[in-house]
Amino acid sequence: MQEKGTISIHTENIFPIIKKFLYSDHEIFLRELVSNAVDATQKIKRLATLGQYTGELGDITVEVSFDEKKKTITISDKGLGMTAEEIKKYINQIAFSGATEFVEKFKDAKDANEIIGKFGLGFYSAFMVAKKVEIHTLSYQDGAEPAIWTCDGSTEFEIKKGKRKDRGTDVILYINEDSEEFLDKWKLQGILDKYCKFLPVPIKFGTKSESVEDGVDKDGNKKWKSVEVDNIINTTSPIWTKSPSDLKDEDYLAFYKELYPMSEDPLFWIHLNVDYPFNLTGVLYFPKVKNEFELQRNKIKLFSRQVFITDEVKDIVPEFLMLLHGVIDSPDIPLNVSRSFLQADGNVKKINNYITKKVADKLSELFKKDRKAYEAKWNDIGLFVKYGMISEDKFYEKGKEFTLLKNTNDEYFTLDEYTEKVKAIQTNKDDQTIFLYATDVDKQDSFIASANAKGYDVLVMDSPIDSHFIQHIETKLDKTQLKRVDADVVEKLIQKEDSYANLLTEEQSKQVKELFEKAIDNKSYSVEVEGLSPEEMPVTITMEEWMRRMKDMAQTGGGPMSFYGNMPDSYKVAINGNHPLVDKILKAEGEEARLILAKQAFDLAKLSQGLLTGKDLTAFVKRSVEMI
């Protein structure tokens, strides 16, 4: 048996395009060839199960090996094998028509996965790194003859009789000079670990040393010796392929450690398992999220039939769940998948919706089952939930039930519960319920104390996303406003009909205003004299709610809000005309004495806001010592 011919692709331009075009993703050649070997192995197992193959399956391990001297990489399987006719059918005839149009369309393309996936060129990815490829194969069929196929990267091929004795296929790559980096044990091990770690058939790559017991010494202590064993690089039955009823918590935790060895244990997890209207399995973990949450994104791995595809899962997993960790496996997503495919495929949108629903159901279940335990986890999971509430309307509707608000007393409330708690006392003259919140409890302590003195409750909103969450829920809640506790004096935050009158005369108010403006001497601070409770601070410095909120949102990537982040800070200085200190300032002898007292009162207000620094702080301390 010997035959020479031309591969039926109708153009000689295809190989240069494969080589040039696929070079940016050239390591995937190993993923493609090992996946093919696994497919062939699974098919022979299936035929044996159906009784259509009655021979001995034997050892079905797929083996990857290399020879640095011969400059070859070999992928060997004991799967179906091929006859010469099947080689001609499956290898020589690349399954697409209109090759000329294909060449024209893709000659400048940049996405390797797109070309491979669309035209079934997985095997031909071998020519990204090989100057010649041989296939040594023997079909499982009775009476089949072994065959060797050879191609040097042109459209010319040769098929001749082979010498293989056992069922299966060896694919031998003769590595070209530009790709000799792949003739390295650790390079190949890294690629196999990345793409083939969970394939369903054992993958052998060389050997490794293991310590085994070797009797005992004269003192009765165990002795150990080092032996060489097969280096099986994969776990053939990862937990997402098993039934949740067969798994324990320690199984999920062990798998998490396998994926992320340096991470803390996750809070909890969701086991995905659906077979209609699409097929999807996987495990998603809720990690403990730090404020630097950008560092923890892109930790979900996408698989297709246990073959790793990518950790770029933005189109499959909702944006707000990109902080989750874990794996998703769906045979409905092709192995050779491009971003453009993900964006257009109908199944991807269904999977996205399914994952959103599963996460919402899991959170609702945890909340109802053990609220105290749920509250204990809230500081870690709140970021996910709030992000989801902002970005997905469907999630918002479900999330209302289990989204929690925490106050400064470390008490937790749902949105409805909190509205009921504060509605009676924190409703203003315009019938608006006011939620007060703090972003830094320590820094805003004096303002929180003023609010508490009025009987008002204050929420803690200090996560990276809270500025956006506040803006969002304000649009959802009826007749409700959220105001930062230091956005104004407490009487102005929740204005009632019975506000305090200013006891100063118009002339005195004017004099106090001018005196403080002169003492402050800074255009960023606008001074107003107001009638407040005598028990409130003599001077309060605030930034208007809308400006403060825009700046907070700008700091966390507010898009159009970034404009406000670059604006200079501007503050309102409220002088309490009813405070005894203001009366004392007015009655001080000499303008210099009045200015010193005004400056001291202003600096005290700055100090309470953390605004007094540098030379101003030094001068304040010195002045305080002199006044004592």
Automatic annotation (TrEMBL):
<feature type="binding site">
    <location>
        <position position="77"/>
    </location>
    <ligand>
        <name>ATP</name>
    </ligand>
</feature>
<feature type="binding site">
    <location>
        <begin position="97"/>
        <end position="98"/>
    </location>
    <ligand>
        <name>ATP</name>
    </ligand>
</feature>
<dbReference type="Pfam" id="PF00183">
    <property type="entry name" value="HSP90"/>
</dbReference>
<feature type="binding site">
    <location>
        <position position="339"/>
    </location>
    <ligand>
        <name>ATP</name>
    </ligand>
</feature>
<comment type="similarity">
    <text>Belongs to the heat shock protein 90 family.</text>
</comment>
<dbReference type="InterPro" id="IPR036890">
    <property type="entry name" value="HATPase_C_sf"/>
</dbReference>
<dbReference type="GO" id="GO:0016887">
    <property type="term" value="F:ATP hydrolysis activity"/>
</dbReference>
<dbReference type="InterPro" id="IPR019805">
    <property type="entry name" value="Heat_shock_protein_90_CS"/>
</dbReference>
<dbReference type="InterPro" id="IPR020568">
    <property type="entry name" value="Ribosomal_Su5_D2-typ_SF"/>
</dbReference>
<dbReference type="Pfam" id="PF13589">
    <property type="entry name" value="HATPase_c_3"/>
</dbReference>
<dbReference type="GO" id="GO:0005524">
    <property type="term" value="F:ATP binding"/>
</dbReference>
<dbReference type="GO" id="GO:0140662">
    <property type="term" value="F:ATP-dependent protein folding chaperone"/>
</dbReference>
<keyword id="KW-0143">Chaperone</keyword>
<keyword id="KW-0067">ATP-binding</keyword>
<keyword id="KW-0346">Stress response</keyword>
<feature type="binding site">
    <location>
        <position position="36"/>
    </location>
    <ligand>
        <name>ATP</name>
    </ligand>
</feature>
<keyword id="KW-0963">Cytoplasm</keyword>
<feature type="binding site">
    <location>
        <position position="32"/>
    </location>
    <ligand>
        <name>ATP</name>
    </ligand>
</feature>
<feature type="binding site">
    <location>
        <position position="169"/>
    </location>
    <ligand>
        <name>ATP</name>
    </ligand>
</feature>
<feature type="binding site">
    <location>
        <position position="82"/>
    </location>
    <ligand>
        <name>ATP</name>
    </ligand>
</feature>
<dbReference type="GO" id="GO:0051082">
    <property type="term" value="F:unfolded protein binding"/>
</dbReference>
<dbReference type="InterPro" id="IPR037196">
    <property type="entry name" value="HSP90_C"/>
</dbReference>
<keyword id="KW-0547">Nucleotide-binding</keyword>
<protein>
    <recommendedName>
        <fullName>Chaperone protein HtpG</fullName>
    </recommendedName>
</protein>
<dbReference type="InterPro" id="IPR001404">
    <property type="entry name" value="Hsp90_fam"/>
</dbReference>
<dbReference type="InterPro" id="IPR020575">
    <property type="entry name" value="Hsp90_N"/>
</dbReference>
